[in-house]
Amino acid sequence: MSSLTRTLITLGFSDLEKSERFLGFRELADLDQGELLQSLKLANDPDLAVQSLVRLLSAVPAVYGKLSVPERETGRQVPNEALFRLLGASEALVEFLIRHPEHVDVLDTFPSPEPVAADAGALRDSLLAAVGAEPASAIPVAALTGTPARIALRTRYRRHLAELAIRDLCAASPQDVMPLVGAELADLAAAALDAALAVARAEVAGLFSFDEVAAVKLAVIGMGKCGARELNYISDVDVMYVMEADGGGLDESRAVAVGNALASAAAQAIYAPEREPGLWEVDANLRPEGKDGPLVRTLESFLSYYQRWAHDWEFQALLKARAIAGDRALGLRFEQAVSPLIWTSSEREGFVASVQAMRRRVTANIRDSEAGRQLKLGKGGLRDVEFTVQLLQLVHAKNDESIRVKATTAAIDALMRAGYIGRTDAAHLDQSYRYLRVLEHRIQLVHMRRTHLMPRAPEQLRALARAAAGPLSLKRPTAETLLEDWGRVKREVRALHERIFYRPILVTAAHLSADDVALTTDAARARLAALGYRDTAGAQRHIEALTAGVSRRAALQRQLLPVLLGWLADGVDPDAGLLAFRRVSEALGTSHWYLGMLRDHQAAAERLCHVLSSSRLVTDLLEVSPEATAWFGNDKELVPLTFAAQWAEIQSKMSRHPEPAGAIRLIRLNRQREILRIAIADCSGLLAQDQVSAALSDVDRATVLGALMVAEADVYAGEPPLVHVLVVAMGRQGGREIGYGSDADVLFVQQLVPGTAGAAVEGPAQQQAKAIVSKVMSLLTQPLKPAIQAERVLSIDADLRPEGKNGPLVRSLDAYREYYSRWSSAWEAQALLRALPMAGFDGLAAEFVAMADPVRYPAVLAEADQREIKRIKARMESERLPRGADPARHVKLGRGGLSDVEWLVQLWQLKHAHLHAGLRTTSTLAALHAARGLDLVGEGDAELLEAAWRLAGKVRNANVIWTGKPSDLLPSARRDLEAVARWCGYEPGQAAAFEEDYLGLTRKARAVFERLFYG
């Protein structure tokens, strides 16, 4: 490695080969290489700097005299900081100097660690003078038109842009100077538009008379970053045009024609193709009706539109509106006229929600390839800061003029001073915003291209790291440290955005009057009645209990209750929801995590309110387990525990509580906790229907296994066991298709422990098996002391055993084998289709399945057996349907309900599973899909049957979730039907449509069933 290479590495060069080659070019031959390298050290990107220097010296030899400048204090020659910082930062501005060598004197700009902004008026005068217009004229008209005017305007603009870039690059702190830079860029853009209008007035003189042009006042309203004086180096400049005819007998249509011509000609002067490239696009799409609306409007037309047809986002856009060019008096009148509309816009129905939705849409529209590189639109990006600040302003500035400022950094400071953002949050938000804007500025400055994407190349990231750190940084920033810092800032911005933007107090302030927020008695009761609370007096008592006193909890709930009441009212039973909220709040007291969740996590607080007012099941369980409220704010906590995880927990607790009473209490508490977890996740839309059934099945399996282990330990009492006991799940439990109100249909199987065979032990072994089974059922169902409040006891039903209630509760495997081979009926073979070992000895489970398979998957299903199955189905419909129940509304036994689909599928299994392994499953839907694959049912019929079966299952679950009690009937009462409809995915108020859909779907499913089942 040569000494030059080592020096280049030390000085921060990346492309060593290319830079060494450029250092050898003839343009640098007469320069002292050591001094040159020390000068290039000033550049953020020394590779770019040396390449740009060679090109600039070749095109403009006068730059040789500017490589060094005398130091002010000592007079000795030092590197020209302005030159070398520009060379390493902006290839585009170096290109400008190459095109216009007459402007290389810009490199004489004296660098200052604390630069001062150029005067906006001076910039305007300079650009007007460049096109030959008189700056002092009330209506400046350019002496130049066409190509000469455009070149003169753009050249003068870029001269000032280069001056600003040098001051920016030489500033001690890029973050500190960022607002000044954004403001000057906006002032420069405004000056360019004023000069472009002067050119336009001269150019349209051929189309209209001088008097007509002079009679039309045209104001340019800057929007977005230009309006807020926080513009980027390169960005579209968003504008709107306001016009007014000032006498002269000019009618409105002619005046509009003049205004359109002026606006179009001005835009052409800015960015139409020419030898000197365009500056930026003039974008007027934020005007009323967007691209479809007229380019220019009168002030009256603007106001009429905003008062009658404007969308919520248009008022947010107006927050930045500022008169920047053209007729200043007309522009100021526009600002004054729209101001009341801006600051009262948050009172519009759905305003805050629409603003939030717009932000989510912006994020969702980011290309996947750009998501990780976006400085502006990505999560934790500039738009998050801007949206947060703008929403705070729109919500609070209607009553507080002190925060009616346009620039983001100024607005953050104003919001902090007014108390709407804490000092720490404001400082972090401001620092993060400045940091992100500096990155954006430095990235755009290189090629003067409109981009908000972080570079990928390591050498570009390294140069950007140095640029962001500033010239006085003592650190040696790297690509890695840049990405680390950026990641930290994004995380911080996102956290601040979610904490402030979505904080419920904003919605409260946006929608409620001062009386509502204070919760005076009359205002609160009026609002409660309007929201749908039936017992307003009772609701008022709950509110008073929640807000009374001077505690932190009371103060916070006084602040949040107005919006919480609205969320509760969105549920089906706001009165019950409010009562439950009071009980949960009282149980949790001043728990910091609970109060923090209500204040800072809108999604969690809204989810809690939705559940409390829509689910008696969850409400009852939360009242006895209020600590579970924390799950609403953490989706990870709502992931159902696997069977293995539950069993491991149960084993651990059993080891610490060997006595049966203590052990079974913990097991049943575990079950209650997991049912609550699943129900909350289900209510929150985090689980699909199949996932709910599987999760509930795992809970019951773990519970039964735990009870079996406790029972065996108690019955064995330290003695050698004589039998193994197996619990076999049947029915929907065996199919792992249970709901919240399902009991456990089971069979109990026993087998002698190997080595204990013999007539002498058969009697004692059978007694031991009976004792274990009786103990299991007792442990799972008997009341505990003290009782477990709100427990949904797992009911054990063994009626599907051989001989039903008249048969022994537990049999040996051999006894089952003999019974099924000699005496069983067709319906008993059908029942075995759902048999699935649930708890007990694994070896016995395998033997039971091997015994059951030939019975449930017979080689041939006799015609007599088929007739018997159909006869039983028909009798069941007539005899088991509850008295007075409408068959069309019974989701289990009624028309097109669960029973119809399951019996049809089970008939196919009995007939065909012997030959087709896909049908050998305990799952109804898996068997239905297999039957479709075997062409036992057409695709349309299969989809219809599945849809009816799923909807019936949802209704069953919804009944339990809503009332806390199992029911197999589609409700008739409107309120109950509304609750079930919402649970099934229908919008509020769509209960009648849901009812019609259910009845229609099940009617069609019944027709399919009758055709395929009865033939």
What is the topology?
Elements: H1 3-11, H2 16-23, H3 33-40, H4 46-59, E1 68-70, E2 77-79, H5 81-87, H6 91-99, H7 120-130, H8 146-170, H9 174-203, H10 210-215, E3 216-222, H11 224-227, E4 237-245, H12 252-271, E5 282-283, E6 296-298, H13 299-308, H14 312-318, E7 322-326, H15 328-343, H16 351-364, H17 382-396, H18 408-417, H19 423-447, H20 458-469, H21 479-501, H22 504-511, H23 514-518, H24 521-531, H25 536-547, H26 552-569, H27 574-588, H28 592-600, H29 602-612, H30 616-624, H31 643-656, H32 660-683, H33 689-716, E8 723-729, H34 731-734, E9 744-752, H35 759-781, E10 796-797, E11 810-812, H36 813-822, H37 826-832, E12 836-840, H38 842-856, H39 863-879, H40 898-912, H41 924-933, H42 939-963, H43 974-983, H44 991-1014
Parallel strand pairs: 4-5, 4-6, 9-10, 9-11
Antiparallel strand pairs: 1-2, 3-4, 3-7, 8-9, 8-12
Helix pairs in contact: 2-4, 4-5, 4-6, 5-8, 7-8, 7-9, 8-9, 9-12, 9-19, 13-15, 17-18, 17-21, 17-22, 18-19, 19-21, 20-21, 22-26, 24-25, 25-27, 26-29, 27-29, 27-30, 30-32, 31-32, 31-33, 32-33, 33-35, 36-38, 37-38, 40-41, 40-44, 42-43, 42-44, 43-44
Any key phrases for this structure?
1015 residues, mainly alpha, five-stranded mixed β-sheet, elongated
Model description:
Helix 12 links the parallel strand 4 and strand 5. The longest helix has 30 residues. The chain is elongated. About 2% of the residues have low confidence. 60% of the residues lie in helices and 6% in strands. The protein is mainly α and 1015 residues long.
